[in-house]
């Protein structure tokens, strides 16, 4: 029996696994069964209609790219969907589709083509006939980026930048936060809105790692000038995760030139980071100073009301309903990141679809427990504040008060110190949740606690007790 379809799918899974989160891979790709390979058409079986729609919406580009790698440029994908008519299951066949990325009007090759050899946008004949893909994800819009106190400044300024790229005081716009709080979503929303309002502009979203890899290839091919020219032709340049350039002096040097050119020509620059600019390590000071020319805005962990609104939005987009008690349970118990919240919701919907069971509080509890076991533990500032306040017998509201009472000041400094130690939040984000203090206050608090730990044995023992409560 010919089992080439099994081997092809096994190869595809090895690539897909490297390009998805472990939880997403286990949920959406492990249950898939390869059925047949007819020429260049691979047919796979998925457990339900919901599965098919989710794969088509979220992963079709990855599936197409992977199939083409192993079956050639004409590769196609078909689905066999297991349907349930409440009496006996049956299957229906559906072809795979492809999503179109927003195009730019300018005559340029896509940035991933930079690695294929010498290019010069100014001299290559026929270049005006080519287009560049913006690399924007059409699912990440302002409409589904829920606004709350945690992100209002960044969202409003991002919207203003999209309306008038290069024409506001927010240039560059630097957005920073811990992992999974919406930086990437906001970046894509800015790009998409700018393209909608100004279709004549060239917009490019690029991850800092991709920028580094392109520069490395361009340097190896003696193509550095062309690389710089390419990026100097962008009207709205969005660089995600700039901290990846730490220690990469060559890429920082070339980005410094690109930044200066774009800024001087009133082109818009948007940058994201996982830290406040002054906290970034191994980034040249002249770059850091330029990051501060415009506006720096952070994204914080949303409160319960905002988390509830996010859940309702996700459910609406996917045409799913959940019992009200499940929605409230999710919003109250998932406090680390929006990404974690989405991961649990996806697992819930998948389990319900596969097992043909209604989503209940009990199922939700089981999914959350399983998700937490399979995820790297990332403590939130909110969680740490609650532990510290419980220890000192004060409320989080008291900790945020502008008071000089010694026990409150000490509790706040300890909360700041432990948040820096155990969370991925920036100093500015920690300060914002500890009484709306700035990052300098947090830095001072951490130094104060460190000094006491070195000289005060009794204080040391108290800190051990609090930390034990945090990590248990």
Secondary structure layout:
Blueprint: H1 4-18, H2 22-28, E1 33-38, E2 41-46, H3 49-58, H4 60-71, E3 76-84, E4 89-95, H5 152-163, E5 173-176, H6 183-197, E6 203-207, H7 208-220, H8 224-232, E7 236-240, H9 249-264, E8 268-273, H10 285-291, E9 295-298, H11 304-317, H12 324-333, H13 338-355, H14 361-374, H15 381-392, H16 396-399, H17 406-422, H18 427-433, H19 439-455, H20 457-471
Parallel strand pairs: 2-3, 5-8, 5-9, 6-7, 7-8
Antiparallel strand pairs: 1-2, 3-4
What does this 3D model show about the protein?
α1 crosses α4 (60-71) and α11 packs across α13. Helices cover 52% and strands 11% of the residues. The longest helix has 18 residues, at 338-355. A five-stranded parallel sheet has the order 6-7-8-5-9, with helices on both faces. A four-stranded mixed sheet has the order 1-2-3-4. The protein folds into four domains: 4-95, GMP Synthetase, Chain A, domain 3, CATH 3.30.300; 111-118 and 131-298, 3-Layer(aba) Sandwich (Rossmann fold); 304-374, Helicase, Ruva Protein, domain 3 (Orthogonal Bundle), CATH 1.10.8.60; 381-471, Chromosomal Replication Initiator Protein Dnaa, Chain: A (Orthogonal Bundle). It is α/β, with parallel strands linked by helices and 472 residues long.
Residues in β-strands, percent: 5-15%
Mean pLDDT: 81
- Series of secondary-structure elements, N-terminal to C-terminal: HHEEHHEEHEHEHHEHEHEHHHHHHHHHH
Report the total helices: 20
Strand order of the main beta sheet, please? Answer: 6-7-8-5-9
Radius of gyration: 25 Å
Strand segment count: 9
Poorly predicted regions are 106-130
Distance between the termini: 53 Å
Largest sheet: 5 strands, parallel
The amount of helix comes to: 40-55%
Instruction: Give the CATH architecture of the largest domain.
Output: 3-Layer(aba) Sandwich
């Amino acid at each position: 029996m010919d089992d080439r379809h099994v081997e092809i799918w096994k190869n595809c899974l090895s690539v897909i696994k490297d390009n998805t989160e472990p939880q997403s891979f286990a949920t959406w790709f492990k249950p898939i069964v390869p059925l047949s390979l007819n020429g260049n058409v691979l047919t796979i079986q998925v457990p339900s209609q919901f599965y098919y729609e989710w794969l088509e919406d979220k992963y079709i580009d990855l599936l197409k790219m992977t199939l083409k790698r192993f079956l050639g440029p004409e590769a196609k994908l078909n689905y066999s969907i297991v349907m349930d008519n409440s009496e006996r299951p049956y299957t229906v066949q559906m072809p795979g589709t492809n999503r179109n990325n927003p195009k730019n009007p300018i005559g340029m090759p896509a940035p991933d083509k930079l690695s294929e050899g010498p290019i010069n946008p100014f001299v290559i004949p026929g270049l005006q006939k080519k287009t560049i893909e913006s690399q924007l994800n059409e699912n990440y819009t302002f409409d589904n980026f829920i606004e709350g106190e945690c992100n209002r400044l960044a969202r409003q300024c991002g919207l203003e930048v999209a309306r008038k790229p290069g024409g506001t005081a927010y240039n560059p716009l630097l957005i920073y936060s811990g992992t999974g709080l919406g930086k990437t979503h906001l970046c894509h929303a800015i790009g998409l809105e700018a393209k909608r309002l100004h279709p004549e502009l060239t917009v490019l979203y690029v991850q800092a790692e991709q920028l580094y890899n392109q520069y490395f290839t361009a340097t190896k091919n003696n193509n550095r000038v062309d690389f710089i020219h390419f990026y100097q032709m962008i009207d709205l340049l969005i660089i995600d995760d700039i901290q990846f350039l730490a220690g990469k002096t060559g890429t920082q040097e070339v980005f410094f030139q690109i930044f200066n050119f774009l800024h001087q020509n009133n082109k818009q620059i948007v940058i994201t980071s996982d830290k406040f600019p002054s906290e970034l390590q191994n980034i040249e000071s002249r770059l850091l100073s330029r990051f501060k020319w415009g506006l720096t805005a952070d994204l914080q962990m949303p409160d319960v009301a905002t988390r509830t609104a996010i859940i309702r939005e996700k459910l609406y987009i996917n045409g799913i309903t959940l019992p009200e008690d499940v929605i409230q349970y999710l919003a109250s118990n998932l406090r680390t990141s929006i990404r974690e919240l989405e991961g649990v919701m996806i697992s819930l919907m998948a389990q319900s679809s596969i097992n043909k069971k209604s989503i209940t509080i009990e199922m939700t509890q089981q999914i959350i427990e399983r998700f937490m076991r399979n995820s790297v533990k990332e403590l939130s500032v909110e969680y740490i504040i609650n532990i510290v306040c419980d220890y000192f017998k004060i409320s989080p509201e008291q900790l945020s008060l502008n008071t000089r009472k010694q026990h409150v000041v000490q509790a706040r400094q300890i909360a700041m110190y432990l948040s820096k130690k155990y969370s991925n939040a920036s100093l500015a984000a920690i300060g914002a949740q500890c009484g709306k203090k700035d990052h300098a206050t947090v830095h001072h608090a951490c130094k104060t606690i460190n000094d006491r730990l070195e000289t005060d044995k009794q204080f040391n023992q108290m800190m051990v007790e609090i930390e034990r409560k945090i990590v248990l």
